[in-house]
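Changelog excerpt

This revision adds worked examples to the README so contributors can see how folded entries look when concatenated. The first example is reproduced verbatim below.
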Amino acid sequence: TEHLADGSVNGAKLGAGSVTTEHLADGSVSGAKLGAGSVTAEHLADGSVSGAKLGAGSVTTEHLADGSVSGAKLGTGSVTTEHLADGSVNGAKLGAGSVTTEHLADGSVSGAKLGAGSVMAEHLADGSVSGAKLGAGSVTTEHLADGSISGAKLAFFPVAAQLPGISLAFGSQYYAFQGAVETIKVTVAFSSPFADDSYILVAMSDHPSCRCILGCKRAHEAELEIIRTRLGPEPQGWIQWIAIGTKTEA
């Protein structure tokens, strides 16, 4: 060594493979001295490749281990529709109130998805409740607006009065004379009593030998007297009657 002048040993003087690890000073091999592709995986110490050493876009799918990308590694808004597999978003992944009207497809909410009592008046469109949707006996008195039932909607022939609060009753009462009596009395009862005894009652017999007159009136019934005009044969028949007056207040 003492015979060699500094810088006297050039590349031409070195034999192939004569420069080994112990001949290299620490830090003496710069990037310029490395051949293209000469640094491979076994040359890199664990953890030696930092983010600063990676080129833009150099880490691709095959470089990532399964499960290595955690939520902390994802940027805000980086997971979009094309990143989600079909069926991958279950109920546990949805935030409270996150599903709104625009997220629901037309017709997607079936009856099975509605909670008991969840459909209220404001959810029903005008005219949407048809007769087929009403249960038997579901429409009661309190559901009917005053004056909403016209005569055309009644299943029986209606008797209309010009004045409010008027009640009408009618019927027929059987009678039969026995022996030589000239008069008999029959009582007609009203299914709903009138407010008082000021009602009007009209009655007639269907037998040509009998006539009837009004005896007395009470709010719930009236007494009729039937008079025969011939002694024989013993007449019998029906009294047809009708009564109209002020109805009892409910």
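The second example, added in the same revision:
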Amino acid sequence: MRLIAGLTLIAGLAAPLAAVAQQATFALVSPENNEEQAAATHVSADGSVVIGWGGGYLAPGITVWRWTEATGKVRLGAPPGYVECYPAGLTADGSTLFVNVWQGNVLVLWRWSSTGGWQLVGDIGGQVHAVNGDGMVFAGGTTVGGVARPFRWTGPGGLQVIGPFGTLTGGTYLRGLSRDGAVLFGTDYTLAASARNYVWSAGGGFHAIPLLPTCQWGDAVAADRDGSAIVGSCALTQYATPTLPWVWTAAGGVRPVVLTGAGGPQGAATAISGDGMRIAGWYGDYGPAWLWSPTEGDRRVDALLTELGGNPWGVQIRGVTAISDDGRTLVGPLEGFFSYIARIPAFCYANCDGSTAAPALNVQDFGCFLTRYAAGEEYANCDGSTAAPVLNVGDFSCFLQKYAARCP
């Protein structure tokens, strides 16, 4: 990892000024020329590639950009003959990005890669909101009889409309797609208000996500790599703020993400890592950004970066748009016009008590695991099993293996 102690803003490129012994890095992506905003939207699985859009009132249209540590921000513009496009997804390896483009009254999908440039995918029957890891599955929204419905598209099968799942009148909306392309999730207003968030997969069909007991409305926002964990927020009424963050898993159902830091317990969950071990969002009503893990609880992202030497300017961070699959790269908005890309140490499952003093892994972690296993906490399901009982002797063997492997 390259160590960054400072940065110079030149055409959106964050350049290192000096090297220091630090555990985190921070890069700023800035608007340039006639752009008024540079918004990061997607990150590759390993965090090496970030894409987003740029534009504003002074710009001719919304266009897409791509960032790597080596190149900084590179404006890709829009497909030939167009001045406006919207990011729809990024492959896991970061090699190919997808955008929606209006062609007359029809929304068509294009892709861009460093080897092939801009290539037309075509009109697939709706607006694409998400792309899976290999770029072979698309998910988005269309209309059937004038009513909103989600779809899943594959090359062999074409467009498959999903839902509705209830009997009430209303639209069904997609919020996302798992990285493996198997699971869709979103909100269905044909379902009862107590469980309007849904999870759907080709193999497992439909499952409703119930609301937390104190909520009357909820919204699913992001999923881990295989869709076995989904995060979102809920409130007393639709559009009410502040909200309460929640996480749903196939094994444990829905539960609150407990925020104990200043600004909690209210807040919103906006992103989750590929392994489901890191969740991010904001405190209160669009307040400071937080990062949560089952061993460390919640921390303010800007404070964590400062502690790890990756925020020497004391920048306040108020949002996390996406987390890389490995949980090490966070991207999001900064001060309304910029975006940031932060890199932090990997999550260490075996450090059960979240200790920071050396050695971080010690006998206390075994006692911690036993306590959490006895309490039936989902963290103790080390092997991620879903068949009952999910907590079993296999989890002890799993924990021993992770402990022996040490922290990444």
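Reviewer comment on example two: Helices lie at 301-307, 363-374, 393-405. The two ends are 13 Å apart (CA to CA).
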